[in-house]
Amino acid sequence: MPLRLPPLTALRAFDSAARHMSFAKAAAELNVTPAALSFQIKSLEEHLGAPLFHRLNRAVELTEAGRVLAPGAAEGFQTLAAAWQSARRLQDNTTLNVTAGPAFTAKWLAPRLYEFARSFPEIDLRFSATLRLMDFARDEVDVAVRFGYGPDEGLYALPLRREWITPVMSPEMATRYPTPDSLRDAPLLFDHSVDFLDPPCDWTTWFRAAGLEFTPTHGSHFSQADHAVDAAGAGAGVALGRRAMVVKDLHEGKLVAPYTLALETKAHFRFICTLGTENRPQIKAFRDWILSEITKTDYVTDSLTIIPVEDIPPL
């Protein structure tokens, strides 16, 4: 025989009172009178057959039964609220909440958003630039663009273009350092946002791939990829630029990649959303737009010899 649950309004009154430890504050939160809230809790106690609160002079305390019920009631209402919000979002085909890393947002997404807005004026695009792990339901996120290896279990994850790194610099600096060997004397920039890559895609590995045994120890260090790339564009030094971070600047001539050697990593950007939502109109439109924008700069790889970093022998 199925368990007969008490009325939802009574449970809601209990949850609010247990959180506030005050009938008056709970009544204000639920926009009811204290008498009405007290009646709901009393009916819940009658349904249970035991008191849930000790009524004191100017306060209330949970009984043992109340302490057992309170965590489950709170979790239940949180779960119900999240499910209801997710169901409501499914009816909205004009709002798209996207999260991406700060560097990808700054160097890839933001400069192109005008094109998306012009092509899809009916979609209200909202961005959160963060690397924090997101819960699609709790954080009301529709799409995440993330860089790494995965896996993205239980999610729709579309790999974007393969990711490579190669030295990039201003056109003026390229005249001063025409060969890989000349980079020994160049001001090198270090991007520590890729320190997690295994095998590493760092300066030592790139020099080794170029047939040079050189481990640089001096230079400017950056925690964000876009900061390193911007410094290179300003003429401050030479950075190892990742494809997604430099293709637009290479396309526009703000940066040059004067050498033909690039290292490919198995880490890549992925377009991620909840499984089953990938064909919602605004999500599909955003996905197709990203893929279309990527193809516009595919030619940048034409002059590069791309070597998987796994093929570079270790020291």
List the SSEs and their pairings:
Blueprint: H1 8-20, H2 23-30, H3 34-48, E1 53-55, E2 60-62, H4 64-89, E3 95-100, H5 102-109, H6 113-119, E4 124-129, E5 143-148, E6 155-159, E7 163-168, H7 171-176, E8 188-191, H8 203-209, E9 220-222, H9 225-233, E10 238-242, H10 243-252, E11 261-265, E12 268-274, H11 281-295, E13 305-308
Parallel strand pairs: 3-4, 3-5, 8-9, 8-10, 11-13
Antiparallel strand pairs: 1-2, 5-12, 6-12, 7-10, 7-11
Helix pairs in contact: 1-2, 1-3, 1-4, 2-3, 5-10
How does this model look, in words?
The protein is an alpha/beta fold and 315 residues long. It has two domains: 82 residues, Winged helix-like DNA-binding domain superfamily/Winged helix DNA-binding domain (Arc Repressor Mutant, subunit A, Orthogonal Bundle); 221 residues, D-Maltodextrin-Binding Protein, domain 2, CATH 3.40.190.290. Helices cover 39% and strands 20% of the residues. It has eleven helices and 13 strands. The strands form three sheets. The protein has a six-stranded mixed beta sheet with strand order 9-8-10-7-11-13, sandwiched between helices. Strands 4-3-5-12-6 form a five-stranded mixed beta sheet. A two-stranded antiparallel ribbon has the order 1-2. Helix 2 crosses helix 3.
